[in-house]
Amino acid sequence: MFKFGRLKSFSILSSSSRSLRSRTLQKKLYLSTKCLSKIITSQSPLAKFPRLICMASGKFDVLVGPKRCMSLEVEDRPNFPGSRSKWTEKIEFIQPDLYDGIPVYRVMNRKGEIIDPANDPQLDEEKVVKMYQRMTLLNTMDRILYESQRQGRISFYMTNYGEEGTHIGSAAALHDDDYIFGQYREAGVLMWRGFPLDSFMNQCYGNEDDLGKGRQMPVHYGSQNLNFITISSPLATQMPQAVGCAYAFKRAQSGQCVVCYFGEGTSSEGDAHAAFNFSATLDRNNGYAISTPTHEQYRGDGVASRGPAYGISSIRVDGNDVFAVYNVTKAARELSVSENIPILIEAMTYRIGHHSTSDDSSAYRSVDEVQYWDSTQHPIARLRSYLVSKQYWDDDKEKKWKEDCKRQVMQSFAKAEKKVKPNWRELFYDVYHTMPNHIKNQLKYMEEHVKEYEEHYPVKNFAKEK
Questions:
Q1: Which intervals hold domain Dehydrogenase E1 component (predicted)?
Q2: Is 355 a catalytic residue?
């Protein structure tokens, strides 16, 4: 229907001028030249006034008798498709710096104190302690694997320092059958779902027990059993994939949700805009896209401000507040599943560690800046303060847990390091469901080549053919 304007009021006019009765319609009826007559003949109290006479200057005059007519006044608004605007006679450019930024939702202050008790998620002791333990276990694993890369034991690694709250808070609010499309800094989400330390280590070492069979570089985790889609290196590739998966769930009415994690650097990729136009996402704004700070990444108010332009309900949350992330993710999931709509969450946090082992962040930010965030707004310290205040945690428990954490990680680390690499023939499998002839020929050639020149290859470091 072509929308002409919004009906404001109608008046019944009498030739004798003895009465003038005005009523205001409660419903927002929209009128057009094509459907006005139909509306008038079908809607009470206009049903007895069927004939449309003319339309001019925002009024519809309807003949109701030989000497009486009804005047319908409408609000004159632009009728351009996709617009909800009003007319203006002023030249006014929208200036982004004149608007206040989107507020950041939080539950705890920096001391770990609940600000408004109504926002306390009221999680039981077992769950809150588990959240803290997963955050600290992730932190311990990061330290050991980072150092192992520096020692040349693995080729690459990316830490999650400072972002543990966004991982655990969001993961704890999701259902186990929800699908996760991560970027490359969401190991905590996978850890929350029960991905074992052994599997983390096997993947980083690319050994024979690696679920990916040694084909991916370190930190590119994936688990079919835990509904965590394998990480890809190129930025934003996971975003349109996640949208497609979510659309399939929507059509199936499965009650499942898809969560896509990405960084503010990814939001500048073309795939991100395609996904926004067809999507639901969770963004992690950690202050830097490798070496590019956010103020150079974009001129607008972060990533959440883009959501409304794509018709996406959006919210910004303190990513260092694990309870705030939990509340927002839980509410977003319920809204997304019940109404089949996308939600954009921008979790504001800070990447304390280097971008990866290939990066030296001291080249583009000061040590004092990092130290400030580490000492004043670390999500682990904030949650520990909360635990202590609730008498769920104390120094003795902290000491024992730290020792247990390190022991668990080191045991998995030692086992993974001793295992051989997958059989080199795995290179040729799993590309096609049925191996085509040209791949078979390549495999045969490689087998003959390795057999002839075996002394030049470290065959003993690879698993034997099963």
A1: 133-423
A2: yes
